[in-house]
Amino acid sequence: MVERLRARSAEFAEGWDSHHVAFQQFGTRVLNHPQVGRLAIDFQGLQPIGHDRIRIVVYTAADDAESSERLARLLNP
Predict the structure, then answer these.
(1) What are phi and psi of 66, to 5 degrees?
(2) Can you tell me the distance from the alpha carbon of 24 to that of 30, in angstroms, rounded to the nearest whole number?
(3) How many whole angstroms separate alpha carbon 53 and alpha carbon 70?
(4) Strand, coil or helix: what is 33?
(5) In what order do the strands lie in the sheet with 37-48?
């Protein structure tokens, strides 16, 4: 995904390469999805320095097989 963003935006590529991050947040959220039940989702949020209106948040299944399997079921019903 990062490579696609870098290819489409010179501004994104420059910011990514500089590693200047003003805001970083990470953690795990637990959701109760109506179709698959409990999902533990890890997230990481980044905000480039000098770009108060831009935030990148990446969500992935937490490091547990059950959440990975349930997330896969949502993506491939």
Answers:
(1) -65, -45
(2) 20
(3) 33
(4) strand
(5) 21-33, 37-48, 56-61
Residue bearing tokens 């990148």: 56
68: its two tokens: 């990975």
Q: Over the stretch 16-71, which tens digit does the pLDDT of each residue have?
A: 777 766 666 889 999 999 999 999 999 988 887 787 788 889 888 888 899 989 98
Contacts with 56 (C-beta within 8 Å, 6 or more apart), sequence order: 45, 46, 47
Confidence at residue 31, expressed as pLDDT on a 0 to 100 scale: 92
- Rounded to two decimals, the pTM is 0.60
* Pairing status of strand 37-48 against strand 56-61: antiparallel
